[in-house]
Amino acid sequence: MLEEVKEVIEKEVRPVLEREGGSIELEGVDDDGVVKVRLTGACAGCPMSQYTLVNFVEATVKDKVPEVKKVISVDDAKARFEELLRR
Asked: How open is the CA angle 10-16-18, to the nearest 5 degrees?
């Protein structure tokens, strides 16, 4: 399942996010179908990031990989703050 999720993120999700100045990193896939991602770039700290996560990332991944139950964001507050400072 990990390779399938990785392919969907690389080919379908990341290119769309990059057009808006954002990106995504795949952190892992649990045995119970939970995909962990980190939104980066313009997506980090964006007020619409939760909407993007659920209505675009999760919807796309679940559509292509039916075994996926949920997509969650793993958020490192310190890293997000440092990234915002670099902007």
From this structure: 85
- With a threshold of 0.90, does the pTM exceed it? no
Question: Containing H/E element for 41?
Answer: strand 34-41
Secondary structure tally for the chain: helices H, strands E = 5, 3
Tell me which residue range forms the domain holding 8. 2-86
| Distance from the first to the final alpha carbon of the chain | 35
Q: How many domains does the chain have?
A: 1
* CATH code for the domain of 72: 3.30.300.130
At 40 the three-state DSSP class reads: strand
Q: What is the pLDDT of residues 35-44, one digit of tens each?
A: 999 999 888 8
